[in-house]
Amino acid sequence: MNNFELENELQGMNLLRKAWGLYIKNIMKIICIVMIVALPVEAIKNFLLIDIDIGTITSRTVMITFILNLLLSIVPSVIICFMFPQMMKERTISVKESFQQGVKFWPKVIGFGIIVKFLVIIGMICFIVPGLVYTTRFLFVNYIIILEGTYGNNPISRSNQMVKGRTWEFFMILVSIGLIQWGISYFLGYVIDSWVIGTVTDVITDIMLEFTTVLFLVAYLILRRYENPEQVIEIDGQT
C-alpha cells in the first residue's frame, strides 16, 4: 500500500463506508455482546438514578455510576476488538469464545484506561483543547493492547504516534457520530420518561456506540497494514 492508497482508505467517507459494512454484517453479534453487558448495567443505573435530583446525588451514587460506566466502556469494546480481527482472518469465532478470550485483557485495558482518562482530564483543565487532542490521539490504545501487546511497547505513545497527523480528521468523525447518538438518546429520553424506557434507550445508544469501536479499529488496521503489509490482519480480504 502506497501513501496515496493509504490516504484514500482513510478518507472520511471511505472509512465510514468500510466500517459500516463490517458493523452491519456483524450487527447480531454486536447486539448480543452489548445486551449481555449493557442490559443489566443500564437497568441498575437507571433504577438507581430515577427520581434523584442533582442536589441529592451522593458520593456513593457517583461511585456506582462510575463503575457501571467503566464496565460499559470497556467490556463490549474489548470483546469486539478481539472478535473482529479473528473474523477478518476468516476464522469463525463465537460470542462465548470472544468473551472468554477478551477477559484476560481487562486488567491492562482498565489500567491504561485510567491513565488515559487522567491525561484527558488534565488536558481539559489546561484550556480544553489539549484534552480534545488527547481524546483523539489515544483512540488506538485498546487495539494496541489487544493486537500488539504491551511487552516492550507503550500503547499510549504508540497510539499517539499512529494518530498524529490525522487528529482533527478523526476528531471531527468522533464529534459527528457523538452528536447523532446524543440527539437520538435525548429525543427518546425527552418523549418518554421512565426508567424502563430509559434503560432501553441507553442500550440502543450503547449498540450504536460500538460503531465507533469498529470504525477506529478499521482505521487502526489500515495504518498497520501500511506500516508492515506482511504482518497485519487483512481487511475485507484485501492484501
UniProtKB/TrEMBL annotation:
Keywords of this entry: Membrane, Transmembrane, Transmembrane helix
Record's protein name: Glycerophosphoryl diester phosphodiesterase membrane domain-containing protein
Native organism taxonomy: Bacteria, Bacillati, Bacillota, Bacilli, Bacillales
Membrane-spanning ranges: 20-41, 61-84, 105-132, 138-156, 168-192, 204-223
Tagged with keyword Membrane: yes
Highest rank taxon of the organism: Bacteria
